[in-house]
Amino acid sequence: MNVLTDAAVEKALEQKMTEVDHKMIGQDVSVYYGEKRALFDVNLNVRKNTVTALIGPSGCGKSTFLRCLNRMNDTIDGCRVTGKITLDGLDIYDPSIDVVELRARVGMVFQKPNPFPKSIYENIAYGPRIHGLARSKADLDQIVESSLQKAGLWNEAKDRLQESGTGLSGGQQQRLCIARAIAVSPEVILMDEPCSALDPIATAKVEELIHELRTNFTIVIVTHSMQQAARVSQRTAMFHLGLLVEENDTDKMFTNPDDQRTQDYIMGRFG
Amino acid sequence: MTDFTVETIGKPALINRARIERRNASERRFRRLGVVAVAIGVLALVVLMTSIFTGGLSAFRQTYISLDIFLDPARLDKDGTRDPDAIAKISTFGYAPLIEKALVDAMAAKGVAVDGLNAKSAAEMVSKEAPADLRRYVLADPSVIGQTVRFDLLAGGRIDGYYKGRVSMASAQLDRNVSPEQLMLADKLREAGILTTKFNWGFFTAPDASDTRPEAAGLGVAIIGSAYMMLIVLVLSLPLGVAASIYLEEFAPQNRFTDLIEVNIANLAAVPSIVFGILGLAVLINFVGLPQSAPIVGGLVLTLMTLPTIIIATRASLKAVPPSIRDAALGVGASKMQATFHHVLPLAMPGIMTGTIIGLARALGETAPLLLIGMVAFVREFPAGPPEGFFDPASALPVQVYNWTQRGDPAFIERASGAIIVLLVFLLAMNIIAVVLRRRFERRW
C-alpha cells in the first residue's frame, strides 16, 4: 500500500468511499513521542455504524491510533501527529478545528472506569451542561435518563441518581462512563480496552451494550482479547510494531487472514 | 530413603533456627530503639509544656482591688462645664488622689489597718496604670463625673506576684518597690474581700505596658497585628500560590525554564526567614517607602515566605489527583480549563487548604523577619481598623514573646509564658482544622 503515490491513494480512497460509508478516514498517520516513532503511515478507515476492533500485542500502537481519533494525544507532552485524519471529510488536525468540539463529537471510554467522584446524575449531566445541550432542568433530566437507558444502567441506577458514581460496582461504573460519553450525543465512541478491568459477567454486559450502540453510533474499540474482538466487531484491524498489518472483515480476519503475522497472532504464536 | 529425607529436612532447619533467631533479635532491637526515640521525644515535649504551663498559666489570673471611687467634680471638672477639652486637661495625677481616698475610705469602713503604713504607701499597692484606666473611663463618658462608681483596679505587679509566689515577705524586705507592710495589708484586704484574683481579660485586650507596669501588659496590639498579617498573607498568598501551582502543574510546558522555576521555588522554601526580613527592610521599607512596624510590611514579607509552602503543597495535591479524572473530563469535551476548575481543583482542595493552613501557622509563629522590619517596637496605640490599620504600627505575638523575655521584671517572664500559651493555642487550633479538613475530605475516588 505504501508504494502507491498520493494521487493513487486518493483515488483508491474515493473509490472506497462510494462503496461504503466511512465515518473517519486515517491517511498516512504517523505518531512520534519525542524522538520515538510509535506509528508508521497507518491508513485505516472507520465505517459508519460499525464496530471496528483494533487488536495487536502490547505497545503495537493501537491505543495510540485510537487516541489520535479524538486528539487525546494532544495532552501528552512531546507527542506529534503527522498525516491526515478526517471526520465526515473534515480534517480534525486542521488549525481551525476546535478540539473541544471534536471531542464532543468523538467521545471516549477509558480502560479503567473513571467516573467523576460526584453523583451519578452529575456524572452524566456534566457533558451536556458544558456544551449547553439542555435548556432546562427537565431537558437535562431527560438526557440523563435516556443516556442511562441506552447504557443499560437505568434500572439499576434510577433510585440512586444522587449517590456517588464511585459507589457503583466496576461494571456499573464502566457503563456509567459509557452513558456519560453517550450523553453529549457523539457520532463516534472510542473505547480503549473498556473491559480489561471487569469480570466476565460485567464484560458480557458491556459487550452486549456495544452491540446495541452500533445502531446509533460508530464505535472503535481497542482490545487485548481476540474473543472480544470476534464477538463485538464487524471490522478488525491488526497492528504490529506501529504498523497496520491487516484490516479486514472480522469474520475473515479470524478464519482466513491475509497476513501471516495476523495468523500467528491469532493462533497465539506471539503477543 | 527415610533417613535421607530426615537428614535433608532436619539440617537446613537447624541452620534456619539460628538465622531466624538473629533476625528476630535484630527486629526486637530495632523496635526497642524506636520506642526509646519516641519516649525521648515525648519526654522533651512534656518537659517543655510543663515549664511553659507552670510559668505561664498564672498570666491568665490577675489580682484586682475593688473600690468605690467618687469621681469628684471639684477635682475633675472645676468649672462645672463638663467640657470634654477641659476634662482632658486633667492628667493621671489628678486621678491618683481619688483612688487613694477611695482606698482609705474602704479600709476605714472594713476596719483594716496595718501599723506603720501611711495612706500614700497603701495607695502605691494599686498599679500605676490604674489612674490612666480611670481617666480613660471618664473621658469616654464625662457624665459619670459626680457619681460613685465601683472599679476593679489592677493591683501592682509585686502585690500580684505575692499571690503567684514570685514575691515573699523576705524578698519584700530587700525590694524597693514593695514593703512587707504592704503585703500584710494586701492579706488583710483579701480577707475583707476588697482584693480579689480574677480571670485576666486585660491580657487579651490591653496593649503592651512599660517596664514598671507588668501587671498592665497585654497582648491586644500583638493579637491584632498578627491577625492583620495573617489576613494579608491569606488574601495574597492563597490566590497567588494556587494560580501559580495550577499553571505550573496543568498548563505550563515541561522545559528548562519551568524546571528552573521549580528548583527555585523549592529553594525559596528553604531560605532562612531572616533573609526575607532583610528583603522587606531593603525593598519594602527603604525603597518602596512603606512605614516601619506596619502589618502591611510584615504581611508582605510573610507572604513571600508562605508562597513556596503553598505552591509546593498545592502542586503535590494537584499531582495526587489521578490523571484518569482529567482524561474523563477531556473525553466528554471539556476544555483544559474546565477540566481543571470543575474536576481537578475541587478534588485537590483539601490538600490545598491543609497546605495553606500549615503555611499560615508557620507564618504566625515567625519572629526573625519581623524583628528586622521594626515590629519589635514598643506599641501602645491600637492600630485602626482594616485597611488603614495595615499601615499603623503594631506588634505580633511571637515578637511580643521575644520582647517580654528581654525585660527585667520577673513578672514579664510570666507574661511571656502566657503569650506562648496563647500562640500555641492558636497554632494548635489551626493544625487541628488542617487535620480535620484532611480527614473529612480524604480522597474518595
UniProtKB/TrEMBL annotation, chain A:
Keywords in alphabetical order: ATP-binding, Nucleotide-binding, Phosphate transport, Transport
Transcription in keyword set: no
UniProt-listed GO biological process terms: phosphate ion transmembrane transport
A molecular-function term among this protein's GO annotations: ATP hydrolysis activity
InterPro entries per record: AAA+_ATPase, ABC_transporter-like_ATP-bd, ABC_transporter-like_CS, P-loop_NTPase, PstB-like
Gene3D superfamilies tied to this protein: P-loop containing nucleotide triphosphate hydrolases (3.40.50.300)
Assigned GO CC terms: membrane
ABC transporter domain sequence ranges: 24-266
Highest rank taxon of the organism: Bacteria
NCBIfam families: 3a0107s01c2 (TIGR00972)
Family statement drawn from the similarity comment of this UniProt entry: Belongs to the ABC transporter superfamily.
Protein name according to UniProt: ABC transporter domain-containing protein
Taxonomic source organism: Ciceribacter selenitireducens ATCC BAA-1503
